[in-house]
């Protein structure tokens, strides 16, 4: 697989920024990115503005011009969905027996203790559901007193517009057999949904934890995702998966459901994998590079393609820094108040 050099991206970037909002306003368009134009299933080696559509049909070539300001376009059929937890109707279904860890690490399942009313068209019929997602990594607040937070996404930590600071979280999630109270590990402390970020910070309680990601190892810090670099993620549903960063400037529209609606996330990391990279329940997992540095927070995808927030805006908006094994014990406070 070839990757566009930075010179090509530098030429396309301002044109992409100029047209992306107008393209996103058109029916069926769900994303705008920079990539290599593919014709007849074959890469052409030419740089293009890539336009993701829900379904590729005869109307799309007419609504998306062949080129803009001398830059080629490429229309790609894609389904980009939030990979927050699968929702299970807890009233009449038995929970799945999920992983249970006495010592918490990144990459494990987590979910709100409360149930959520979800209505069509998101589900076949209106009912109360419970949610599962992934606890990605740990961070430390920058303000005093310093507190340890678990990182996940807004759509796992908050779910809808009825969220409140202090909401209880359990491991395993209720989808996976967790019990409110008995399995409480954290409470919601803060959240952000703006710009490039869908994130939440969960204030950790008394359960022991390590600044590691399961099956990956100790977190060594944070870094920018580099195009062409290999990354890994460990999610609640698909476990450990591998991919390659193909873009760091995808703009995607995601439906957060009732009360939140469709939101646009910009400058997202796009990852391609030879196999399935993520699935429902993996939202909140962190993307880690070859040096075990966190580069992104996984939010959405479709089969072999995954999308993630770049980590630096996540840390900035939540006002935290990543926790690594080298952080002094004084920065690791006890149970949440």
Automatic annotation (TrEMBL):
The keyword Protease applies. Belongs to the peptidase S1 family. One of its GO terms (biological process) is proteolysis. The lineage of its organism: Bacteria, Bacillati, Actinomycetota, Actinomycetes, Pseudonocardiales. Keywords: Disulfide bond, Hydrolase, Protease, Serine protease. Signal peptide: none annotated. This is Trypsin-like peptidase domain-containing protein. GO terms for molecular function: serine-type endopeptidase activity. The keyword Disulfide bond applies. It comes from the Bacteria.
């Amino acid at each position: 697989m070839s990757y566009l050099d930075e010179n090509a991206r530098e030429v396309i970037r301002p044109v992409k920024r100029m047209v992306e909002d107008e393209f996103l306003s058109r029916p069926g368009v769900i994303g705008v990115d920079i990539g290599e134009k593919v014709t007849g299933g074959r890469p052409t080696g030419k740089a293009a503005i890539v336009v993701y559509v829900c379904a590729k049909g005869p109307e799309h070539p007419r609504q998306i011009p062949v080129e803009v300001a001398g830059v080629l376009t490429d229309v790609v059929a894609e389904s980009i969905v939030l990979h927050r937890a699968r929702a299970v109707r807890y009233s009449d279904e038995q929970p799945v027996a999920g992983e249970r860890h006495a010592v918490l690490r990144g990459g494990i399942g987590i979910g709100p203790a409360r149930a959520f009313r979800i209505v069509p068209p998101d589900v076949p019929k209106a009912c109360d559901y419970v949610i599962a997602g992934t606890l990605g990594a740990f961070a430390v607040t920058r303000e005093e007193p310093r507190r340890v937070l678990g990182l996940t996404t807004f759509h796992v930590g908050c779910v809808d517009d009825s969220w409140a600071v202090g909401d209880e979280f359990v491991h395993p999630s209720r989808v996976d057999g967790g019990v409110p109270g008995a399995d409480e590990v954290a409470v919601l402390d803060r959240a952000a949904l703006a710009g490039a970020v869908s994130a939440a910070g969960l204030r950790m309680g008394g359960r022991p934890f390590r600044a590691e990601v399961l099956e990956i190892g100790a977190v060594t810090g944070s870094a920018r995702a580099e195009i062409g670099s290999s990354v890994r993620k460990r999610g609640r549903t698909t476990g450990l998966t591998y991919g390659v960063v193909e873009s760091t400037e995808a703009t995607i529209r995601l439906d957060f459901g009732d009360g939140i609606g469709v939101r646009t996330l910009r400058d997202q990391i796009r990852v391609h994998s030879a196999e399935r990279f993520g699935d429902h329940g993996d939202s909140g997992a962190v993307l880690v590079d070859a040096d075990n540095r966190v580069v992104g927070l996984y939010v959405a995808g479709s089969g072999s393609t995954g999308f993630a927030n770049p980590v630096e805006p996540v840390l900035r908006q939540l006002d935290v820094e990543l926790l690594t094994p080298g952080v002094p014990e004084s920065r690791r406070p006890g149970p949440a108040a």
